[in-house]
Amino acid sequence: MSISNSIRAQIPPIHPEGYPFIGGFALASLVLFWIFTPLGWIGTLLTVWCALFFRDPIRVTPQRDGLVVAPADGRISMITRALPPAELGLGDRPLLRVSIFMSVFNVHVNRSPIAGRIEKISYRPGAFINAELDKASEDNERNSLAISTPHGKIGVVQIAGLVARRIVSFVREGQTIGAGERFGLIRFGSRLDVYLPDGTEVLVSEGQTAIAGETILADFDVAVPGLSFRSQ
Predict the structure, then answer these.
(1) Catalytic positions (predicted)?
(2) pLDDT per residue over 118-164, tens digit each?
(3) Active-site hit among 190, 205, 228, 231
(4) H-helix segments, the chain
């Protein structure tokens, strides 16, 4: 492999959603260079950051029935029991909830935590308070998915944060989705909540770093040995 190909292989691809923003930052940088050179360099750094924000690296997802993988990159900020969003129809009892906080430096492409059928998608406008706060689950703008699986329904909720102002969905109701497949994106800095059925075995802890599509959050069937993997 040539040096150029080796370097190119280390650069993750950019999600198409990011092209307009990267182009806007780059154009602004050129204008800033014309006005005042130091401002242009600041704009260049922001352009590089914007490109990194929209990176969409290949992930290798474990393929086995019963596994629940992380839907987002970031820090597991909370593992608790909480009422799921009413619009998902997951019942009126608290469920196990795993929350992943994404900073503006994390990958923001979101992936399905499990294979199943998207039974419902519900968008709800709201506030933009700090996504790390527990009340952000109720007050902030959010987009919620209910995924039907052989192990029960799972709720996945994209929550906007202080800086985030746009939740993008790539899927539709009735669609079948595989574990680790891309289903959406949040701009810029936010949180994902995963609601799991009672009795689920959680395999992560608060403070742990999660990698979307790769980190195993839970296992519905810990007795089944063996894993296979898929790059996507």
Answers:
(1) 190
(2) 999 998 886 655 555 555 566 678 899 999 999 999 999 998 866 55
(3) 190
(4) 3-9, 19-35, 37-53, 136-139
